[in-house]
Structures are given as C-alpha cells and as structure tokens.
Design brief:
Layout (H helix, E strand, L loop, with lengths): L4 E6 L8 H13 L5 E6 L1 H4 L6 H17 L8 E4 L5 H10 L4 H5 L2 H10 L6 H15 L11 E4 L5 H18 L7 E3 L34 H9 L17 H14 L3 H7 L4 H29 L1 H30 L2
Parallel strand pairs: 1-2, 1-4, 2-3, 4-5
Helix pairs in contact: 3-12, 4-7, 4-13, 7-8, 9-12, 10-12
The structure holds adenosine-5'-diphosphate (ADP) and sodium ion.
Length: 337
C-alpha cells in the first residue's frame, strides 16, 4: 500500500526557530521524509490571528521555510509550502466552521488560555476559529478513504484537543455528506526531546523566554552560541548526572547532548564521571556549534538567492495545490456547490 501521509505545520512567528523547535519537532520532520508522503507547511494564516506586522510576517515566512530546507527538508522527497499560497486552506475552513458548534469551539482550552491572556478587546474571531483552520490544514491532505489509507499528525500535548476536534469534524462531514476524509491519527514522535530554558531549566525553551540567554536560536553565530552554553545554569554539585528533579539544568544539557550526538544519558554519565561540568559544557558547545553551523550557512545561502527560494516554494505550493484542489473538488460537490 501507499506510504502514509503526514501533515505538520509550524507558525512563522519568530526570526529564527530555536533548539527546542528543532529537537522537539522539526528534526522529526526530516526523519519522516522517506517513510511518509509528507506535507509540511509554514502556517502564516495562523500567524495573523494576533496583531502582526506585514513586512515582518513576509520575512519570517521566508526565513522559516529557508531554515526547514536548510535542516534537510527536501522538495524531492516531501512537499514544503507556505499556507497562504494554497487558498483551499481557508475555503475548507469555512465549510468545516459551518459544521462546528459554537460551544464546541468554545471548549478549546488553548483559546481560553490565549484569550484570557490577551483580554477580550484584543481577541479575534480568527483566534477563536483557529482550531477549525488547523482541521482544514490536516484534512485537505487526506488520502482517498479505503483500506490501509493513513493520515498521521505528529502532535505535542498542547495540540491534542485540536486533533480530537479534527477527527470529530472529519467524522461529522463523512456522516453527513459521504465518506471523504480519513480520520487523522496523532502521535508523539519517539525521538522528540523536550528542551528547557538554559537560564530557567524548569520551564520549556520558548521564543517568549524571559531572557535571550535562555534560548538557542538555530541561526546563532558560533561565538555567542558557545558563550551561551558555557553560561547555562547548572546545578549545585559538580556531577554530570541525569536527574530531572534534582538537576534540571544539567539534565537539560544532557538531553541536548544526547539528541545531537546520537548517544544516551547513561553513556554521557560514564564519559564525564569525575570530570565535572566544565569539560562537559565545552564538548557540548562544540557539538551544538557543529550541528547548527551547516543549518545557519545553508539558511543564509537560501535567503541570499531569492529566486531559488521562490522557485523551491512555488514547487511545494504547486504540489500541495494539486492535492488540496482535488480534495476541495470533492468537498464542493458533496456540500452542494
Ligand atoms: P514556542 O514555544 O517557542 O512558541 P511553538 O509553540 O511555536 O514554540 O512550537 C513549535 C513546535 O516546536 C511545536 O511542535 C512544539 O511542540 C515544539 N517545541 C517548542 N518548544 C519546544 C521545547 N522547548 N522543547 C521541545 N519542543 C518544543
Ligand atoms: Na516522502
């Protein structure tokens, strides 16, 4: 049977992805390319659910796409595109929105959290219907329903409820209008690592970090990068030991080390037994610099060659459009358009 489809999206909401994005999500995108028929999307429609600057958004969409290509997403083996270049995303979202209960959407905990943070006057209807757009992002790339047809979505814990809604909407559509969508399956990628802030090791590394010293950007230059790792908060004691509760700082650094060097915390403990934090951090800094340098350099090269990047993204949009427009053709017909 055909390779399973996989869909995943990421928002272009920062000037660079960070090491948490990479080790927690994006590296798995690269790994899935050969086993899956992969559709990867820079979801710029989602980025305007909050107030934004147009020039900055355009820039960030390009930088995001360039970074994904630089880390190894390959337009020959998967389909990488920018969401706004495939208008069917918005069209299907309208149809699915008309199948979504107001109360049902209102139960989304992410909306409740985000809107509470922003206040009523800054909260848009777009933010409210964001999960419906996400459902449409996924379901547009449904394979034809039938034996063995699979649609997979790698999800973090925070997106589980949205994926559940996606399944509900697919089922509802199928029931009302005929079998159209394969119900997507979510899974947490086995190799995904949760990375925490270098300065506050009990909170996750995030672009909304309280200090830039806590976050490692993929585009960071080697000098500052080394400094950041050397200045990462470690814990009392000197032992390189994996202990989430007692040693969150060292444990986080060990996770980064293990993920990038293809080793295990046990092997790292054995290697640094008796040698303290200093040498461990120095080696880790070298490993991080080695891992990120090619990504940074390829990103810069892609951004310098605008025509080449445009061409690569146009190719992705064209392939995504072929699938999305086929799905919408069926949807439009079944809905009565
Ligand atoms: P941020 O928290 O910086 O806003 P996003 O929420 O945009 O990042 O996350 C994009 C993707 O990266 C998601 O799949 C998310 O699970 C993953 N991710 C973000 N931060 C981390 C982290 N610190 N460790 C592991 N994965 C992360
Ligand atoms: Na593939």
């Amino acid at each position: 049977s055909a390779a399973p489809r996989v869909f995943s999206g990421i928002q272009p909401t920062a000037d660079s992805f960070h090491l948490g994005n990479y080790l927690g999500a994006l590296r798995q995108w690269v790994a899935l390319q050969d086993s899956h028929d992969a559709f990867y999307c820079v979801v710029d429609l989602h980025a305007i659910t909050v107030e934004h600057d147009p020039a900055l958004l355009r820039h960030r969409s390009r930088v995001s796409a360039a970074q994904l290509l630089a880390m190894g997403i390959d337009q020959e083996r998967s389909t990488l595109f920018v969401q706004s270049q495939v208008p069917e995303h918005a069209e299907l979202a309208w149809v699915l929105g008309c199948l979504t209960g107001f109360g049902e959407a209102g139960r989304m905990t992410q909306f409740k959290d985000k809107s509470a943070k922003q206040g009523t006057s800054a909260t848009t209807v777009g933010l409210f219907t964001y999960p419906v757009l996400m459902a449409s992002d996924i379901l547009l790339y449904t394979p034809e329903p039938g034996a063995g047809a699979r649609l997979e979505v790698p999800v973090g814990e925070d997106q589980r409820q949205h994926l559940e809604l996606t399944r509900t909407l697919a089922q509802r559509f199928n029931h009302r209008f005929g079998d159209t969508f394969v119900l997507p399956d979510g899974y947490i990628p086995k190799t995904a690592a949760k990375i925490t802030d270098l300065q506050e090791p009990t909170v996750k590394m995030s672009k909304s970090a309280s200090s830039p010293q806590g976050i490692v950007d993929l585009l960071e230059e080697p000098g500052p990068l080394r400094k950041k790792i050397m200045r990462a908060v470690t814990d009392t004691g000197t032992e390189v030991r994996y202990d989430e509760a007692e040693k969150p700082g060292v444990t986080n650094l060990m996770r980064i080390f293990a993920a990038l060097d293809g080793t295990t915390p046990d092997a790292i403990e054995a290697r640094y037994a008796g040698s303290g934090y200093g040498q461990f951090k120095k080696d880790l800094a070298a490993i991080v610099v080695d891992a990120l340098t090619p990504i940074r350099e390829r990103t810069q090269a892609l951004l310098a060659d605008e025509d080449e990047l445009d061409k690569l993204l146009a190719r992705g949009a064209e392939r995504a459009s072929a699938v999305a427009s086929r799905t919408m053709e069926i949807v439009r017909d079944r809905v009565g358009f």
